[in-house]
Every structure is written in structure tokens, then in C-alpha cells.
Design brief:
single chain; 10 strands; 277 residues; alpha/beta; 8-stranded parallel β-sheet
């Protein structure tokens, strides 16, 4: 069983999103100051978040690249402050090895990398740090990933990529018990690909490591529900429950309280016989 600080993945863990960016797709600019970011993180902790995921560079389609120093200036002070007030594992959402090292030194204990440690020097940094790492699948890169993504079999191809990437990381010296995988909903995938991937999510559990999903407020849900991003909480919760039923153990979410409640109900039903009134 993977332990992320005090988190044991024998029940669904909600990863609360804390974007300290001006341009993230649903909450860009809302948590740019340390005080506001801390307040939001404390609220998510009170609502039942098991992990706080701090990101300093937007990876939405078409987002501009951020240089390392700018990203460090955004995330390191927030992580240092969070470490003093929130007793939860802190995840750093980055692909840059320099940011990984600085964030872990500041108090982060999980690395969440949309490039699956493929950037120059990232795998070496992760091996040195020996902290839990989430490897995500993405076709292309954020600036261009939604330009006509194509797959013959999206579930098989995503699973195979992540299986191979896990093996490569283990061979390089990263303990398998430290690895999490994420299919990368919305990262180089059409809405049809995302739906197919959610339906076949159980295939990823065959890799033998925990599965994380980030479906919260994704545009695919908006297309299905016919709603804009500000109205996607119900759809996001439905997707979170479906992902959990398919074997996901970590659910990345913006609406923490509602997601936690929904997953508690789902877990009680799925573990019928273990519920005590």
C-alpha cells in the first residue's frame, strides 16, 4: 500500500487543487497572494482533502510557458507557508527538475508531473529525491495538445505508455512503491477519447500502482452536460465517483467538500458490510 505522509490509500483520497497562476482554466488568478492561497488550502483541509496540489504554471490548452524562476517565485513561498499551517502532504505540480528540488526542500512531499518525468533532468531529480511521483500521459504538449489528437485505441495506448514509463523509472532507480499514474484526461484527447478512457479506466490498475485522475471541471464534462466551467460541479462529482468505481484511488478536485462526501457514499456502498452506523 502506498503511504503519502499520513494518507493510506485504502479509501479514496481527494487531492485539492491550489493553482497559484493567473491563467489556469477554471480558477486562474484567484489564489495569487500567499494569504488567499493559505486560506483556500486550510478550507480544503477542513473539507477533507488528503493532499494539497500546488501548481505555478498553467497546463491548459494554449497556455504560455513559464520560466523556472517565475515558477519558483510563485510556488516556493506558498509551499513554505503551507507547511507551517496545514498538516497534509503537499504536491508540487511541475515538470521542471529545479522546481521539484526547491519545492521538496520547501516542504512538498509529492511530485505531480504532466510530462511523466520526460523533461531533461526530471527523472534524475526524482530518483535523487525519492518522493512519490505521479506520471501523467499527455499526447503532445500543452500549447498544441488539442490540435487533432488521434489514437487507434486510447485505453490501450495510454495504458501501454504508462506501463513503459513506470518500468523506465524503476530501472532508473525510482522505487515502484513511489509511483502513481494518471491517464491525463483532456491532455491531448478529444471528448470521445476522454469518455472511452473513463469507461476503460480499470485497465490502468493492471499496471500495479495507484491511479490518480483529474476530471474536475474539464471541458469534456461541459460538452456532455451542456454547461460552462462555472456550472460543472455536479458533472465533476459524477465523474469522480465513476473513476473511483473503476479503481482510481486519488481524485484531483476543485470542489473538495462535495467530492469528499460523494466518494464517502460511494465507498460505503462498494464496501457493503464494513459500514458501521
Amino acid at each position: 500500500m502506498l503511504h503519502l505522509g499520513p494518507v493510506k490509500l485504502d479509501s479514496p483520497a481527494v487531492m485539492g487543487v491550489l493553482n497559484v497562476t493567473p491563467d489556469s482554466f477554471s480558477d486562474g488568478g484567484r489564489y495569487l497572494t500567499i494569504d488567499v492561497a493559505l486560506q483556500h488550502a486550510q478550507q480544503m483541509a477542513e473539507q477533507g482533502a488528503a493532499i494539497i496540489d500546488v501548481g505555478g504554471e498553467s497546463t491548459r490548452p494554449g497556455a504560455r510557458a513559464v520560466n523556472e524562476q517565475e515558477e519558483l517565485d510563485r510556488v516556493v513561498p506558498v509551499i513554505e507557508a503551507l507547511r507551517r499551517v496545514v498538516d497534509l502532504p503537499i504536491s508540487i505540480d511541475t515538470s521542471k527538475p529545479g522546481v521539484m528540488r526547491a519545492a521538496v526542500a520547501a516542504g512538498a512531499s509529492i511530485i505531480n508531473d504532466v510530462y511523466a518525468l520526460q523533461a531533461n533532468g526530471a527523472l534524475q531529480a526524482a530518483v535523487e529525491l525519492q518522493q512519490p511521483v505521479c506520471l501523467m500521459h499527455m499526447q503532445g504538449e500543452p500549447r498544441t495538445m488539442q490540435n487533432k489528437p488521434q489514437y487507434d485505441d486510447v485505453v490501450a495506448e495510454v495504458t501501454q505508455f504508462l506501463r513503459e514509463r513506470v518500468a523506465q523509472c524503476v530501472q532508473a532507480g525510482l522505487g515502484k512503491g513511489l509511483i502513481i499514474v494518471d491517464p491525463g484526461f483532456g491532455f491531448g484527447k478529444t471528448p470521445a477519447h476522454n469518455v472511452e478512457l473513463l469507461a476503460g479506466l480499470g485497465r490502468l490498475t493492471e499496471i500495479g500502482v495507484p491511479v490518480l485522475v483529474g476530471l474536475s471541471r474539464k471541458s469534456t464534462l461541459g460538452k456532455i452536460a451542456g454547461k460552462d466551467v462555472s456550472q460543472l460541479m455536479p458533472a465533476s462529482i459524477a465523474a469522480a465517483v465513476l473513476a473511483f468505481q473503476q479503481g482510481a484511488q486519488i481524485i484531483r478536485a476543485h470542489d473538495v467538500a462535495e467530492t469528499v462526501d460523494a466518494l464517502r457514499v460511494a465507498a460505503a456502498v462498494m464496501n457493503t458490510g464494513s459500514f458501521n452506523d
